[in-house]
Amino acid sequence: MLDLLAPDLVPEQGDRLTRTAYKQDFRQREDAVRDGSSWKLERRQHFEEQGSPSRDALRRGDWEEALRLLADRRDTLAETAQEDERRGYAFHRVRVVERPLTPYVQWELHSQRQRAEYGQRIRIVSAAQVAASEDTGPLPEVVVLGGRTLFQVLYTEAGVADGAIRYTDRDLVERWENYIKALYAVGEEVISYFDREVAHLDPPTLSDAGRE
């Protein structure tokens, strides 16, 4: 368990963005980062991602196709890695994992291991390691861009993207960045975690309700 507590987020102190506005604002702010870093905390164990053919294949229960489609994006990942290196940019992810793995997390860890092969910085922590910050509920989904902007990414109960709340208070942004950095420091590299805990697993079994 990590003794450091996550800072509070008060929605009224931020700006509520629609999904479209969030995507546009995120892209602009991330593209502007030079010689800097960003930090993302992923807590939910299920998302209904949109616009991912591999995710769509998982939803249909076609595990082999889902993995094949992940493999098809290697050129894109290599190009992104080269661009990040050119502008001195590093994106860090901390993924909280509960056991047993949900079908979504099992699929996502395949994706993240592949990303790590191309230099993305991804580490895994257990739910026990963030328990001190979850007395009133799970941690939010948070992204800190370039040390200047914090997005609390919002989802419906079903896991569908629902926009975000943007915070720009420098003290709040810094405290959240430090919290995610502390988790990253105690986390395990995704490649070693995957090879030990995930690689040997059978394809996930999806429920009949919406195929997951």
From TrEMBL:
InterPro entries: DUF6879 (IPR049244)
Domain DUF6879: from-to ranges: 35-194
Name assigned to this protein: DUF6879 domain-containing protein
Organism listed in the record: Streptomyces javensis
